[in-house]
Predict the 3D structure of the following.
Amino acid sequence: MGNGSNGMISFGSFEVDNPTSQSQSLEIADVMIAVGQEIKEGDVLYTLTTESVDEIRKALSEDINDTKVDYETLQVEQEEARTQAQQGYDTYVTNGKYAQLIYENELKTYQNAVEEAVMNVEDKQNAYNEKLLELTAIQKEYTQAQEFLREAQGAVSENYAGRHENAYYYTVYLNTRDAAQRLTDQFEEEIDSMNEELEQLLLDIQMAVRTVNQCQFDYEKAKLDLGQTQDVDTYYASMASEWYKIQTASLDNELSSAKNRYDTAVEKLEKFDSSVRDNRILSQYSGVVTEVHLSEGDILSGGSNLVIINDKETVTMEVSLGEDEYNAIDQDSVVNIVFTAYPDEIYSGKVTEVSDAEYDSGLGTIYYTITVTIQGEVSGLYEGMTGDVTFVTKEKKQVCYVSNRAVFREGTKSYVKVRDNSGNIVKQEVITGFSDGINVEITAGLSDGDTVLIESKVGET
């Protein structure tokens, strides 16, 4: 139950558009219909000139061929791009898979270089220490040789005066002194040589230490660089799938657009051929012709109206609703229509179209135009008929109800007046439910068939 709004019935008009978007136009050769004529689906509306039909069909066919070539060419061109995308994906995934292993293996080279440099320092230091021990031993022997030399020189000096009397011993002393001198000189040479070797070993140690420092620097730098490379490879691997999807989606969209252009071209020709058969335009509906828009020799271009017919199968009523009313209705709910010509008959309808919001500058309100299509038998309905439309926003069946005028309130409670068994008028408390503004549901306090009194005033005549 709800409030109805007045509206006017209109019959669906049949408008045929030229199906081609080409610049060419069709020329009407003959008009085969007249106003007031009843036609059936498949009847001939117009005949067209052969030249104009052939010209458009040729243009449409060429459009199909061109878009097909473009589509097939794009397929071939995209194969390389798809291969590159797949290769890029595989590369990123593979690099990410082995990123840790590559990092460890390459860093191992730098670790080995550091270890070798450290070992070289240790070797140089050990060689230096060994040479230093040798020097210490030789210096000890050198000290003993010097002592021996001093003793030999002393013996020669002591026996110098008796060299003529005891020449043999003197010669022995001289030989001993010379041997001691040679031994001392030999030790001095060895000591000098070892000192030079020690100096060189010190230089070698310093060089080896610098090498260790450089290798450690290279190792730390490599750790940073290789770590960054590992992070990049890992990140690229994690993004490879998404990047691949983006690349292929772009290719898919481009290919889909080309395919759509080809399909559209095919559909245009199919639509043209379905509308124009043997140079004739056929009606797709049955009805009575109310307007003929074209004459012999006229040009039929895209969007031109051919005829308007009354389609007996489709009857609609338009209803204007204010913004509040529109927000209150459910477009999927039941619609009841009562025509002025048939007050005792209720037709059912369905909301099939809602206009955009419009502004009534005179009233300063926003309203919507609702198109309701009548369901069921519509043979008795004609253009121009009016009636009431009820949008059912809430419905209850098998309801016990009374007139709103019979219910009165005292405080928070509702009452009606009834007669008791003695015929006296008494108050009866009731609980009310849904109301349509005229009647109200009684959910408790009354039973079906009870008599409820309504007060009224009788005027004097």
Q: What stands out?
A: Confidence is low (pLDDT under 50) at residues 1-23. The chain is about 50% helix and 25% strand. The radius of gyration is 58 Å.
